[in-house]
Every structure is written in structure tokens, then in C-alpha cells.
Specification:
alpha/beta, 13 helices, 10 strands
């Protein structure tokens, strides 16, 4: 596993958008009203592979050698993204997942053409095994969040939001290891690709007025703990959303990016997550996985600031039955 050495910039987000554009879907925004309040939803669960993770995986794989065997470790969504990206680019891939991976995600990883290896009880154990394999000649490890190209790729979600709705002043995202939150912070701090964003006369919202809201389950809170401790630290992992937000430690690179931006860290309970997930289905027929409902849960609870917030509904890779 390679440690990140370069901190990505807003320019890297713009370059990533150009690089991955032939392969990704530009997902829509949905303007909704609940309880007399309006909010924008970025429907990233409609992305190929079923989550935003495809963006970072593609950018990392397109930025490196094209003839490598790609190795990944994942709680599910990153593995699906790597399998999908490898198929699109004509590459081979092996994905390590913990034995606790939801069957819906494991099934789709294999269907995507990647070799699936179940190893260990946690993401950290799966990642350790994957790193050993990736050290072999001709193999390359694609980290789910601690990689500059991955972070830049995830930032293209917010670049699209700002291009379509320049008046957005807050973007709320779910947090696992921090890659999406870090990419969001980069994109919010500068105009996105192909548009003049955040300038007076366009929307009246300058980059300085925009902020990222990083939302985590109460018991999967590695970024919240890192921000409080002044650096990444080990945290417990215990939530209905753990398959996608279950990193036990925030990535060093995402933390470095987020520590330099205006980040609002928010926690939600599992009960709030499930209620938000069910409401997304009941009101809007959005079949989101629990982690994708995390920002909506925070907004419903009044914990997302801003006059024009946007919530990223980041994935839908699960088999589920609403509790309502």
C-alpha cells in the first residue's frame, strides 16, 4: 500500500472531471420539500456501480499504468467501483472484502468481473491482506480514500452540484474514511470545471461562504474523533451503515485536506438513519442504502446549516425492506 504524498487541489478535481467524463453518469439534482423545508438531493446512487465511488476509482486507474492488475480492499462500494472501472478499462482486478460484507455488494463485485476474496472481520484486516498482494510485481493497490487521485475524483460530485446549482452554500456528505468529504471541500473552495461558480453576479455565493458538512453515525465516527484529537485516531465501528461508513481510522490525506477547510462534523443515530432511509423511499421512491441516508438524517434533525443545502445520496448497493 502506498502512502499518499501529494495533497490534491481544486485543479486536480477539474482535471479528474475531464478524465472520467467519458465513463461516468452526470447524476441529477432533485429539489424536494419535507416538513415545510426545501433541500436539494444529489442522486449519486444512480451512478454506474451504484455509488459515487466509481469516480475516484476511475480517476486513480486512469492516472496510473494501464497494464497493471488492480487490487482493492473494500466494505463493498469501493470494490464495486473498482470492478466496474476495471471492466470499463479492460483491466483485471482483485477485491478483498471483510467476511461481514453485505451479500448484495459481494454478489455485484463478482458479477462485475473482479475476483472476490473474503478476508477478516473488518475492513482493516481485508486491507492488510490486499496490501500484501498488491506488493507483487505488476499489481497496483487502489485505496478507497487515502489516495490523491481518488479524493480528486470524488470531488467531481460537488463540481457537478455547483455547476447545476451555483447558489448552493452547503454540501452534506456521509463519511467513511473521508475521501468524499475531502473531495467536497476541494470542490467547494474553487470554481468547478466548465463553469464560473461562486462569483458575485452569478450566484452571490463565494467559495468562502461555502462549507462541507461531514456526517457520520454515532458509533462510526472516525473523522469526528480525528478532528477532535488533532489527527487520525482509532475509533469503534458499530452501525447499521458500517458496510459503507465503517473505517476505523480517517485517512491521513483526507484529514489533511479537511483540517484546512471549514468543516462541520455532525453525528446521527442508527434510528435516525433508518428513519431517513425509509422516508427517502416513502416520499421520493429513492431506494438508498443506510449510509446514503446519513446526510438526510442530519438535515431532518436540523443539524445541517445553510440557506441552500445539498445532500449527497451516495449509494444504493443493498438488499433491504423498509421498516415503515
Amino acid at each position: 500500500m502506498t502512502s499518499p504524498t501529494l495533497t490534491p487541489s481544486a485543479a486536480d478535481v477539474r482535471a479528474a472531471a475531464d478524465r472520467i467524463r467519458p465513463y461516468v453518469r452526470r447524476t441529477p439534482l432533485l429539489d424536494v420539500e419535507t416538513g415545510g423545508r426545501r433541500v436539494l438531493l444529489k442522486l449519486e446512487y444512480l451512478q454506474r456501480s451504484g455509488s459515487f465511488k466509481l469516480r475516484g476509482a476511475l480517476n486513480a486507474m486512469l492516472s496510473g499504468p494501464s497494464d497493471d492488475h488492480v487490487v482493492a480492499a473494500s466494505g463493498g462500494n469501493h470494490g464495486l467501483a473498482v470492478a466496474t472501472a476495471a471492466s470499463l478499462l479492460g483491466m483485471s482486478a482483485t477485491v478483498y472484502v471483510p467476511r461481514t460484507v453485505p451479500e448484495a455488494k459481494a454478489r455485484r463485485i463478482e458479477a462485475g468481473g473482479a475476483r472476490l476474496v473474503r478476508h477478516g472481520a473488518t475492513f482493516a484486516e481485508a486491507a492488510s491482506a490486499a496490501a500484501e498482494v498488491a506488493a507483487q510485481p505488476g499489481h497496483r493497490f487502489v485505496h478507497p480514500y487515502d489516495d490523491p487521485a481518488v479524493v480528486a475524483g470524488q470531488g467531481t460530485v460537488t463540481a457537478e452540484i455547483l455547476a447545476d446549482a451555483p447558489d448552493v452554500d452547503t454540501v452534506a456528505v456521509a463519511v467513511g474514511g473521508g475521501g468524499l468529504a475531502a473531495g467536497t471541500a476541494l470542490a467547494l473552495g474553487s470554481p468547478g470545471p466548465g463553469a464560473t461558480l461562486g462569483t458575485p453576479g452569478t450566484s452571490g455565493v463565494t467559495p468562502e461562504k461555502r462549507r462541507v458538512v461531514a456526517v457520520e453515525p454515532e458509533h462510526c465516527r472516525c473523522l469526528h474523533d480525528a478532528l477532535g484529537a488533532g489527527g487520525p485516531t482509532d475509533s469503534a465501528v458499530d452501525s447499521v451503515a458500517a458496510s459503507a461508513t465503517g473505517a476505523s481510522r480517517a485517512g491521513a490525506l483526507p484529514y489533511a485536506v479537511l483540517a484546512g477547510h471549514d468543516v462541520v462534523s455532525v453525528l446521527v443515530s442508527d434510528e435516525e438513519i433508518l428513519a431517513a432511509r425509509d422516508l427517502l423511499w416513502e416520499e421520493y421512491r429513492i431506494a438508498a442504502e443506510p449510509a446514503a441516508a446519513v446526510p438526510f438524517a442530519a438535515w431532518l434533525a436540523g443539524r445541517v446549516p445553510g440557506e441552500r443545502p445539498c445532500l449527497v445520496v451516495c449509494g444504493a448497493n443493498t438488499d433491504w425492506t423498509p421498516t415503515m
